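Lab notebook, bench 4. The sequencing result for the construct came back, and we need a structural model before the next group meeting so we can plan mutations. Quick request posted to the team channel:

Model the 3D structure of this chain.
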Amino acid sequence: MKAIVFNQHGGPEVLKFSDAPDPKIRPNEVLVRVKACALNHLDLWVRRGIPGVPIPLPHIPGLAAASAQLAWPALITTAAKLLTSAT
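Done. Here's the predicted structure in token form:
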């Protein structure tokens, strides 16, 4: 997949458009295809570094996203799948 990634904190110059590994879901997670993504103020603060808040690096920002669900874990019921796919 393609993603904006940063490997160190700083200004806009630390953002790099690059390949990132496809995510693997765990039993309590879902996989979604992001159709559109935006950076909001929290992403900017994280990129700059928040004193006292450790952020694992490399980091892929983009907390505001529009997406479509791709995969469900076994823990999600059939009813939940039907409700989600109807939206």
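The chain has two helices and four strands.
Will bring this to the meeting.
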